[in-house]
Design a protein that fits this description.
This is DUF2934 domain-containing protein. It comes from Devosia albogilva. It holds the Pfam family DUF2934. This protein is mostly helical and about 60 residues long. About 5% of the residues are buried. It has one domain. Helix 1 crosses helix 2. Helices cover about 65% and strands about 0% of the residues. The longest helix is centred in the last third of the chain and has 24 residues. The mean pLDDT is about 85.
Length: about 60
């Protein structure tokens, strides 16, 4: 099954970015144990927001906020 170009998980660079962001957030918060999923999902959210913003900028869409 072919990956859609909008599917972030078809992009190994995106997955690596999520891992790096999750690790940085986890370290910044003092490396709490048992919070892997919390930091993983925070990182996904942050990276997806960044990707969406970059896409809007590429298409010339300005956020009214």
């Amino acid at each position: 099954m072919a990956q859609s170009s909008s599917d972030p998980w078809g992009d190994q660079d995106f997955e690596l970015l999520v891992r790096e962001v999750a690790y940085a957030l986890w370290e910044r918060d003092g490396r709490p144990e048992g919070q892997e999923k919390h930091y993983w999902f925070r990182a996904i959210d942050k990276c997806m927001q960044q990707r969406a913003e970059e896409d809007r900028l590429r298409r010339g869409i300005v956020d009214p906020m």
